[in-house]
Amino acid sequence: DVKVTQSSRYLVKRTGEKVFLECVQDMDHENMFWYRQDPGLGLRLIYFSYDVKMKEKGDIPEGYSVSREKKERFSLILESASTNQTSMYLCASSPHPPGGQPQHFGDGTRLSIL
Amino acid sequence: GENVEQHPSTLSVQEGDSAVIKCTYSDSASNYFPWYKQELGKRPQLIIDIRSNVGEKKDQRIAVTLNKTAKHFSLHITETQPEDSAVYFCAAGGGSNYKLTFGKGTLLTVNP
User: Fold this and answer.
1) Cβ(A69)–Cβ(A77) below 8 Å
2) Shortest Cα distance from A45 to chain B (angstroms)?
3) pLDDT at B1
């Protein structure tokens, strides 16, 4: 069974801090994704990666960056956290092709920026 | 890019009734259409998916239909049970689309 593990379930940070959200998958999937989930807005793609060191912007990349140094790990970075980045963050992975295969989600990180 | 519209945003049914959730998509290149169920406080989980070479797919009480010409697809849940209460998301992707685009979700409540 696919396991996608996010490092924290809950996180509280202050405005201006640099925040790291970590995600690890154990199925050797090529693709990894970061989504943001807000009530009434569904799942919005922030960034995705289709290979090590490769990344593509999603629909809402502003204020975020990502890092994928190893195939199993995909990190989301908030360069300077702001209150409007308070949200639920979901990581997912899938085999190729990235839009044509089931995505497997982690449990999510609920991030609060004070 | 792809745009997915999902309706209704909330749906309340009595236990044993059927529930139908509908989605439309804009990009005719999309060829993969999954449905996810997200229970309160839990991760989204795939419950059924369909590809564009198939018009209908069933799995016990759940079925999905796809109309490529009209660019819409629907989730049908029969004999609903309280444990079906959750938020359901549709999505479209594949083909020339490198990502899945999700609908905004439907909160389904099944009343005992």
Assistant:
1) no
2) 8
3) 82
